[in-house]
């Protein structure tokens, strides 16, 4: 009787941390671009002279970097398959 031993492997692109990082990163880039290039003086006056889009975009990019760093340093390991083949009882 030979058994296949399957090695544990990493989740890779299917790690939920990377999916969340991608979404936060896209929003972070959009907000950073909007804050850096498309914020008017009227918008700044409404926000008490704070460029909210720029700061929230930078914050999202920092959180994105932390999520990616977390996923790289502590990868999610998928356990080996626990399926066993059952033999029929001898009659």
Count of DSSP H/I helices: 3
Termini gap: 20 Å
Classify the beta-strand content into a percent band: under 5%
Radius of gyration equals 24 Å
- The helical percent reads 40-55%
What does this structure look like?
This protein has 91 residues and is mostly helical. The chain has helices spanning 16-37, 41-46, 52-73, and strands at residues 9-10, 77-78. It has a domain at 16-73. A two-stranded antiparallel ribbon has the order 1-2. Helix 1 (16-37) runs antiparallel to helix 3 (52-73). Keywords: Membrane, Transmembrane, Transmembrane helix. The chain crosses the membrane at residues 12-34, 54-73.
Search tags:
rod-shaped, 91 residues, 3 helices, mainly alpha, membrane, 55% helix, transmembrane helix, 2 strands, two-stranded antiparallel ribbon, 4% strand
Which helices and strands occur, and which strands form pairs?
Elements (H helix, E strand, L loop, with lengths): L8 E2 L5 H22 L3 H6 L5 H22 L3 E2 L13
Antiparallel strand pairs: 1-2
Q: Could you give a quick summary of the protein structure above?
A:
The protein is mostly helical and 91 residues long.
């Amino acid at each position: 009787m030979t058994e296949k031993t399957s090695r544990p492997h990493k989740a890779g692109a299917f790690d939920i941390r990377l999916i969340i990082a991608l979404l936060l990163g896209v929003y972070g880039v959009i907000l950073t671009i909007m804050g850096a290039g498309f914020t008017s003086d009227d918008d700044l006056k409404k926000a008490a002279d704070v460029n909210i889009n720029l700061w929230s975009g930078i914050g999202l990019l920092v959180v994105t970097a932390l999520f990616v760093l977390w996923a790289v340093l502590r990868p999610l390991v998928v356990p080996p398959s626990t399926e066993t083949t059952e033999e029929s009882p001898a009659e």
